[in-house]
TrEMBL record:
Assigned protein family: Belongs to the NAD(P)-dependent epimerase/dehydratase family. UDP-glucuronic acid decarboxylase subfamily.
Record's function text: Catalyzes the NAD-dependent decarboxylation of UDP-glucuronic acid to UDP-xylose. Necessary for the biosynthesis of the core tetrasaccharide in glycosaminoglycan biosynthesis.
Organism lineage: Eukaryota, Viridiplantae, Streptophyta, Embryophyta, Tracheophyta
Name the record gives this protein: UDP-glucuronate decarboxylase
Signal sequence range: none
Originating gene: LOC107885934
Shown part of the complete sequence: 402 to 742 of 742
Amino acid sequence: FYEQDSYFTQAEIQGETWSDFQPQQSNMRILVTGGAGFIGSHLVDKLMENEKNEVIVVDNYFTGSKDNLRKWIGHPRFELIRHDVTEPLLVEVDQIYHLACPASPIFYKHNPVKTIKTNVIGTLNMLGLAKRVGARILLTSTSEVYGDPLIHPQPETYWGNVNPIGVRSCYDEGKRVAETLMFDYHRQHGIEIRIARIFNTYGPRMNIDDGRVVSNFIAQALRGEPLTVQKPGTQTRSFCFVSDMVDGLIRLMEGENTGPINIGNPGEFTMLELAEIVKELINPKVEIKMVENTPDDPRQRKPDITKAKELLGWEPKMKLRDGLPLMEEDFRLRLGVSKEK
Ligand code: NAD
Ligand code: UDP
Ligand code: UDP
């Protein structure tokens, strides 16, 4: 009767009639918070490929856009709700991918109090929802919980080196509290939780002017402007292509491990190296310009993905040099810059 009347959630049906719960093979109603954003919209694309999935997106469009979900609007298995996760939400779902939160420093620093509310009250509300309907919930936490790390690369067992009162703290500490809430709901109420610690992710649909390094460099190269490397330029990051990220998140949700599990690409580059690669691939004529940095910028970051490999059978496939041209193509279309023959 689930086929005919999708009002019932999988958890309700499971409780009444089924003994064997097989998530991959069953109909699923899935909530994606922040689904109009960069990673969220790619996740929605992947979830919608499975005809057994019904997807509900809630988003307040702070950094996301309906445009990212254009192809699903009006689809019978898809629903889009304008909603702020800091307000309670009543829906009936089987799984919750909780992504809602601005991810780029210029956006999360724009209204830091709101960023904390989104991380703390937003996560609390989604956990309250998960508890009421018996849904499994996955939080997209961040490598920023490691702060300016004193251990390199960072394993999940590392507790981090985070400034509690700095300009990035609304995001870093917000995500740390969100992780704590997840584990307390798990221990106290038996909620099924999954925590992904996402490392820098890039790909099509990133906001063009969101200030993150890959989107900045590609937009600058296409506009013929200097690539702005923030000092000292020797700081490192590890960049994961968005399709690899989405694959890792789904494996984590479907698997048996609560996490936290690092999901990221261990290929590590200095910002100067990244600028050189973008210059070489996209526009050899542009200059590289050193500019001032912002406070508390982590000096190095690279995931230890041993756990993801062993527990999820996951590792990234896309190399930076292969992923950048895919993002370039998307940015060219959106900026209206065609390729010189
Ligand atoms: P994004 O800014 O593109 O997407 C976030 C989405 O959440 C947007 O659509 C935004 O409108 C929505 N949102 C923000 N506040 C909200 C609120 N209060 N209520 C409802 N919706 C709200 O960012 P992204 O890169 O897609 O990141 C998605 C998630 O992954 C975030 O939780 C982020 O912290 C995490 N993450 C991303 C990266 C990365 O490199 N992109 C790295 C680490 C962690
Ligand atoms: N909540 C929600 N949707 C639900 C159930 C709860 O948004 O379907 C919110 C609720 O408003 C509360 C939070 O989740 O603020 C935590 O809920 P919980 O039941 O754990 O705690 P309580 O309501 O007892 O504070
Ligand atoms: N960065 C840079 N030029 C830019 C934007 C960022 O050199 O135009 C540097 C920044 O100082 C940081 C790294 O790139 O060391 C990654 O910054 P981003 O904001 O993309 O992500 P996060 O700091 O959250 O890892």
